Structures are given as C-alpha cells and as structure tokens.
Amino acid sequence: MANGNKIMINAEHFLLVGAILLFVAVMAGKVAYRFNAPALLLFLGVGLFFGYDILSFNSPELTQFVGMVSLCIILFSGGMDTKFSDIRPVIAPGVTLATVGVFLTAITLGSFIYFTAPYIGFELSLPLSLLMAATISSTDSASVFSILRTHRQGLGENMRPLLELESGSNDPTAYVLVVLFINILSEGGASTSVGDAIVVFIVQMALGALAGVVFGRIAVWVINKISIDNASLYSVLLLAFVFFTFSFTSLMKGNGYLAVYIAGLIVGNNKLVNKRTVNTFFDGITWLFQIIMFLMLGLLVDLEKAVEPRTLLLGAVAGAFLILIARPLATFLCLAPFRKFSLQARTYISWVGLRGAVPIIFATYPWVEKIEGAELLFNVVFIMTIISLVVQGTTVSSMAKLLGLSFKEKESKFQNALQDKVRSAFTEIGITEQMLSEGNTLNKVALPDNTLVVMVCRDGDYFVPKGNTSLQLGDTLLILSDRNDELQAHYKEYGVEDIIKF
C-alpha cells in the first residue's frame, strides 16, 4: 500500500498543506449543497482522502483539543442564532428530546450492540457497548438546516426551532454519559453506582445552566459598558468570554458545553454593541473551525481498520438499528405527552436525527484515556456517522416533501439586489450650521433627487425622520442616495468635512 509513503508534515509545509486542505474543503462544500448532502460529509471525505494516501496524522489528543475548541465556538454561535421567541413554544419537547431522548437512545442502542456483537465476532462488555452508544447518542441538525435554507424549504408544525433547540442542547447530555461510562471502564471506576451517576448528571447540568446564565449576562454587561475604539476587538473579547465560560465551568465540575450554549442564547437575545460585526465574526470563525474539525477527524481515521469486514459489519448493523429503531423509539416516547405534533411531524423528527462530527470527537475520549477497545469504538462510531450522513443527510429535503411538511420559503427580492445591483450608497454626516440656514426642519435641507435621510442619531438615540422633523447641531444623519456626485457637491456647500461612507 502507498500508506508507507505518506508525507510527514513539518512546520515548513504546514501552512501550504493547511491552505490546500481548506480550499479543497470549501469547494467540496459547494458540491455538497448542489447534491442536497451535508457539507461536513465531504469535509470528512477530504480528510479521509488526504489521510489515507498522502498525509501522516495520528494524534487523538490534538484532535480532541481542536474538537473541544470547535464545539465551544459552534455551540455558542448556535445559541446566538437562536431566538427565544422561536423556541419558547417548543422548550418542553426540545429539552425532553435533548435529555431523556439522548438517554433512551444510548440505552437502547447500547443494549443492542451488547447482544449483537458476539454474533459478529466481538465480545464487548456492557459498559463498553453503552459507551459506544453514548458517543453517538446526540444529533447534529446544523447540517440539516444548511440544506433546507439553501433550497429555501420551510418546515411546518414549528419543527425547525424544535430541531435547532434539540441539536444545540443535547451534546452536553451525551458528554456526561460518555464521561460516566469512561469512568466505569477505568481502573477503580466500576464501583460507580447508578445513584452516584444520577447525582453527577444533575450537578453537572445544573452548574452548567447556572454558569451559562451568569456568564452570558456578564458578557452582555461588559461589552455594552466597555468602550473600545477598535470595533473588531468586541468580537475578540466575546470569544475570550466563550473560552472562559467553558473552562471555568468545567473546573467547577459543571457541564461546560451546556454553559457555552446557554451563554450564547443570553448574548444573542440581548442588545449588544456592534452586534452585526460580532455576528459576522462568529459566522466566519464557526465555519472555519467546523472545516478544521472535520478535516482532522478524517485525517485521524485509519481507513484500512475502519473497513475491516467485522468492524464494517458491526458499524452498519448498529447504524441501521440507530436510524430505524433507537432514534424513532426515543423520539416517539419523548413526544408522547405533547399532543400537538402530528404523526408526520414525529416521523420526520425521528428521521432527521442526523449524526455529525460530535460523536467522532466524543469517540476520541476513550482513545485518549487508553480504554480497552477504544480504537474499535472509534472506528465503529465513524462508520455509523457516515451511514447517518449518507442515508439521512441526503434525504432531509425529500423526506419533508414526502410527509407533506415542507413549504417554499419566500425569497427576498432585495437581498441579492442590495449586494450586486443597486447603485445606491449610504453616507453618514453631522449637521452643520449651513444646513440649518434655511430652517431647522428636514424638508428645508436641499438634497439631490433620489436621496433619503433614513435615520437620525441624537444623543445616542436613533429614530426615522419625517419631513417636518426638527434637526439640531450635534445630530448625525444616515443618508441613502444613488446620486453620489451631486450629493458630494451639496456636502461641500454645507461645509460637511467628515463623511463616513458605507
């Protein structure tokens, strides 16, 4: 095999190789959208391709660290993008799916693996089987919505916010289960009782939720009160809050992932200085770390061991059971008390329990802790994830149509036009004495045709003016015009020197 001739990356070539990987991954993501596939599937594919025959990479410790950083950013960004008003009607079913649903999935799937593995040739202990199931018990619906939004496909019965809430908040539950079973499998951990496990779970989740609320509110207060000349540094400051929230909560024996997600919810649903800049920054860095995370996971996989017949069979059988039995069973049991969801909605929710990079990251934890059978666990979880991505990820849109739950979202007539076609531009100016020489109302200020004053800032307050709005020195105007040359001439006449262009 060509594996013996793999390239060992040194510092000299690191940036070049990294740039090539990122470029290929972005192009792969573009292809994924076209074929209704989740982008992370091809990101993983790029990593697999380079890891199989080109690059040498075998560091679960580094992968776990990058995965931890990536999850912090992804969960915080997901929280920021979630509106309380959207998730409020579905908080109860969403939280039930994110906690009880994950637990039921892990128990059902783990039991199946334990009783099935001997027929395939593996003797797995019950704790190891449950650990294997726990690593893949949480969903990753972020890729689902990238497909739906690309095709402007909406979902009825309030399912989108429900799935977003579940996928954003169920990773902490899976993480607690993974740590619990690792502890049981570790030396001396077998004495862990069910009662102790329940106490640990409750304490971790409670401390995580409390820390998320506290640090989220502190972040909002600090960012709104502090005055920084460089607006870009607000994003850096918030990123520091993200990592501090996770690490401090984890040191206090709370669930850092839950804390980060809730902190993101708090920040995203409050007024924030330079919020647009912050959102743009987190959108970009979230995509960057998702790509890096998926690439590293692909590089880490030993494809020859993963496709060994027995390993492949166990992964395929367990993956099919997860998709067809474990996830639907957990979903229908969790949603049984909530009568407002139709049978079609429950079926769809159970189908889009899409697995992503998180299970593979969680599968590195036993590997790092030197748990016996950890490499087999990693390979089986990887196969199950790929099956989920291929089977469920490519049918998200068609399944919604088949169940009669989809509708075409309205497309904005102006969104693309504002970016590409409209010649109008915004300028920001301050009121001068010359502008008020003919009168202090807006309709007395001479401006070119096709020019509008769309907003006034006065003493920190913003309002949309009318023709009879009184203006005064110290006001700042936001002006929209497609007669830029004429507008500049008027500015000169009015003695306007400081002009900010957008």
Could you please describe the fold and organization of this structure?
This protein is about 65% helix and about 5% strand. By secondary structure, it is α+β, with helices and mostly antiparallel strands. Mean pLDDT is about 80; it is low at about 415-420. Strands 5-4-6-3-7 form a 5-stranded antiparallel beta sheet, with no helix packed on it. A two-stranded antiparallel sheet has the order 1-2. It contains 22 helices and 7 strands. It has helices at about 10-35, 40-55, 60-80, 85, 90-120, 125-135, 140-150, 160-170, 170-185, 195-225, 230-250, 255-270, 275-300, 305, 310-335, 345-350, 355-360, 365-370, 375-390, 395-400, 415-420, 485-495, and strands at about 155, 405-410, 425-430, 450-460, 460-465, 475-480, 500. The radius of gyration is 27 Å and the shape is elongated.
Q: Main sheet?
A: 5 strands, antiparallel
What is the end-to-end distance?
57 Å
Strand content: 5-15%
Enumerate the strands of the largest sheet in spatial order, edge to edge or round the barrel: 5-4-6-3-7
| General form | elongated
Number of strands: 7
- The proportion of residues forming helix, as a percent range, comes to 55-70%
Give average pLDDT, whole number.
82
Order of helix and strand elements from N to C terminus: HHHHHHHEHHHHHHHHHHHHHEHEEEEHE
Q: What is the rounded Rg? A: 27 Å
Tally of alpha and pi helices: 22
Quickly give the structural class: alpha+beta
Question: What low-confidence regions span 5 or more consecutive residues with pLDDT below 50?
Answer: 417-421
